[in-house]
Design brief:
Elements (H helix, E strand, L loop, with lengths): L33 H12 L13 H13 L3 H6 L7 H17 L3 H5 L1 E4 L2 E4 L11 H6 L13 E5 L5 H9 L4 E6 L2 H13 L6 E5 L10 E6 L6 H5 L21 H9 L4 E10 L4 H7 L17 E5 H6 L1 H11 L6
Parallel strand pairs: 3-4, 3-6, 4-5, 6-7
Antiparallel strand pairs: 1-2, 7-8
Helix pairs in contact: 1-2, 1-4, 2-4, 10-13
């Protein structure tokens, strides 16, 4: 595959531990290095009991995003800058953003305005979920062994949000045409921005649609990361989730209304040899309980994450009656 998947963002900046500003006898204050601020920022975040899970694994990862933003450096540039002294203005900016992170529980990606997914940088704000999905590993593996990506002409990314999954596919598979679908016009505006920023406008279109309601044609590959969180479960999530759009997280019927609608409808939009990859995350067991007679094929990930199942078009047709039975019994009153 054409890129190295970045599961962890942490760089080698934590080899020193100094005070923020060093006062030497008879000398002007010495401003701290990037490495100093890296360590001090981690020390500030770790006892604050903030929640990590919005595209990062721990405090070190969040501080990497923070310093990339404040210093206007990419990942490689930040690695090279560990001995560079920071300015007073930069230090103040770091302090202000850390204060917001700790006191308001705003995810770091929203504070800095970007997130890294599948080795690519995406602009994010509170119109969309922060990218976080094991689809990155599937893209890295070329959807093997189920799909020959060289034979995929047109793919669809359902519930695209920022566009991160579909745009990563378009970036790494240059013969693939992508349609990005979302119900939210605000999310699609941001997806269009990311499409243009990555130079993919010639092969990517954005479509406003309530699931497949405005979709036409057939696709060789459909990927979907729909809302799959139950309303009661949503209310118990850490405070950081309250900054994300609820419509991108919450689904009726134990969280399974939208995922199972996608299962029931997707076959009509797949080519004869097409595949659907559907993510329900940690609610994989809920989907199994909702569809007890349907054999679900779950993908195993080596880099973390869970809850993506794969269906061929033939299997979607084979079990369509089970999908529809669930929808009729549990979802018909919730359909939008």
């Amino acid at each position: 595959m054409p890129f190295q998947h970045i599961q962890r963002l942490t760089v080698d900046l934590n080899h020193k531990n100094r005070h923020c500003i060093l006062f030497l006898s008879g000398a002007k204050p010495v401003l701290p290095t990037v490495a100093d601020i890296f360590k001090q920022s981690i020390d500030r975040l770790q006892p604050a009991e903030v929640f990590y899970g919005h595209g990062v694994a721990e405090a070190e990862d969040e501080v990497v995003l923070l310093l990339m933003h404040v210093l206007q450096l990419d990942f490689a540039g930040l690695n090279r800058a560990h001995d560079q002294r920071m300015t007073a203005a930069q230090i103040q900016r770091v302090d202000a953003l850390l204060t917001q992170r700790v006191e308001q529980r705003i995810p770091m990606a929203y504070l800095v305005g970007f997130s890294v997914f599948a080795g690519l940088s995406f602009v994010v704000d509170q119109r969309v979920l922060i990218p976080r999905s094991p689809f990155a590993e599937l893209i890295d593996q070329g959807f093997a062994p189920w799909v020959d990506v060289a034979a995929v002409n047109h793919a669809l990314d359902m519930c695209t949000g920022s566009g991160c999954i579909g745009l990563a596919m378009a970036h790494y598979f240059p013969t693939m045409q992508l349609t990005l679908v979302d119900l939210s016009p605000d999310a699609l505006d941001l997806a269009r921005h990311n499409t243009k920023a990555l130079g993919l406008s010639d092969r990517v279109q954005c479509l406003e649609s309530d699931l497949f309601s405005h979709v036409s044609g057939q696709f060789d590959l459909i990927v979907a990361n729909p809302p799959y969180v139950d309303e009661q479960e949503y209310r118990a999530l850490p405070a950081e989730f309250s900054h994300e759009p609820a419509m991108a997280l919450v689904s009726a019927a134990q969280g399974m209304a939208l995922p199972i609608q996608i299962l029931a409808q997707a076959a009509d939009y797949l080519t004869a040899g097409g595949y659907l990859f559907l993510e329900v995350g940690y609610n994989d067991g809920v989907l199994e309980r909702c569809l007890p007679t349907v054999p679900l094929e779950w993908i195993e990930f080596s880099l973390g994450g869970q809850g993506i199942c794969v269906f061929s078009r033939d299997d979607l047709l084979k079990y369509r009656s089970e999908f529809n039975q669930f929808l009729q019994a549990h979802v018909s009153q919730h359909l939008r």
